[in-house]
Amino acid sequence: MTADDTTSGTLALDKQPAPDAVENASGPLLTVTDLVQRFRVPGGMMNAVAGVSFELGRGRTLGLVGESGCGKSTLARAILQLTKPSEGSVLFDGEELTDLPKAGLRTMRRRIQMVFQDPISALNPRRKIFDIVAEGLVIAGVPAEEIKPKVEAVLRQVGLDPELVADRRPHQFSGGQCQRIAIARAMVVDPDLLICDEPVASLDVSVQAQVLDLLDEMKTRTGVSMIFVAHDLAVVRNISDDVAVMYLGTICETGDVTAIYESPAHPYTRALLDAVPTPDPGAAPAGPALQGEIPSPMNPPSGCRFRTRCPIARDECAAHVPQLRDVSPGHRVACHFPLVGEAAVFAHTDQGASQTAPKAGQTTPEDEPVEVAPAARED
């Protein structure tokens, strides 16, 4: 269904999805396979995204988390083809986006919309709010007599009075209001996929809650699929169905929210969760804290990219690149020694391993394996 399928004065957002329509749709909405995004920079080539693969189901929300600089936003832009991927495949509803010409992308982008991190800079300061929200409909060729009721309806959906805001400009609104306008601009064309690139990162806590409630309401009403990029793990847990954890341009763990938050299988995921503040100041972390900095994406470590900061790194981590594998149904991890599943016993010996493994943040020459004391090899 598109905005053209609605009658004049009725917005697509007001239409409920057909019962079980999402569940009965065949196959995932989005399939990303071996996506690589390189940038030429002074000193060489940087792999911002290095072979990422995942699927997004229809009507589901994927939370994309990781430290700053791990490639989350670059991946989101590459999916939308705002930056052309260097390699790999982006299959959206059965159509390969990387092969589409500009005219085809222009049409397809009506079904894939993006909400950017900075709501104020994402809006044209010289245009009125009505024109900003209506632009997608104008480009799509919606009849002029249908545009006004659609724009007014979507502005009401995001909690703004069209009579008060339509003739004003972005600088006359707060950050939270501008983000509501950006969401309205994205949703007015009734997309199938909404990519949210840290949409609440620049907002205060109370406004964050309002925007998150709005996105959740939009998802419930329309059945839109979402990719939600964020740093805040609490936010991701509340809004997402599935989670993908990124580190240095790669995905190290994926799974549903319950599996990721209650049974993290990758040491990096567990470290991220341990870093979330708890109300009890005396609570001990579940595992050793990370130290050091993320290695340069221009010269990543051999084998596992996380091994230079991992408290349980072994020889195999330097020699071989771990591949995503199932540790439970729907829960996958790229680790030679996952903390759950068949190797879960290793989680109980990681404190001893951390005492003999290289210090977190310590790098080793590419041709030298990580030295670990014999006692740490006992499973």
> Helical proportion?
25-40%
Which stretches are low in confidence, meaning pLDDT under 50 for 5 or more residues running?
Answer: 1-24, 345-379
CATH superfamily of the largest domain: P-loop containing nucleotide triphosphate hydrolases
Number of extended strands: 12
> What is the approximate shape?
globular
Average pLDDT score: 82
Number of domains: 2
**CA-CA gap between termini:** 55 Å
Strand order of the largest sheet: 6-7-8-3-9-10-12-11
CATH architecture verdict of the largest domain: 3-Layer(aba) Sandwich
Instruction: Assign the CATH topology of the largest domain.
Output: Rossmann fold
Sheet with the most strands? 8 strands, mixed
Radius of gyration (CA) equals 23 Å
Overview of the structural elements:
- With 379 residues, this protein is α/β, with parallel strands linked by helices.
- It has 2 domains: 3-240, Rossmann fold (3-Layer(aba) Sandwich), CATH 3.40.50; 264-377, no CATH class.
- 30% of the residues lie in helices and 19% in strands.
- The strands form 2 sheets. Strands 6-7-8-3-9-10-12-11 form an 8-stranded mixed sheet, with helices on both faces. The chain has a 4-stranded antiparallel sheet with strand order 2-1-4-5.
- α4 (129-140) crosses α5 (144-157).
- The longest helix is centred in the middle third of the chain and has 18 residues, at 205-222.
- The termini are far apart.
- The relative contact order is 0.12.
Summarize the structure.
With 379 residues, the protein is α/β, with parallel strands linked by helices. The chain is built from 13 helices and twelve strands.
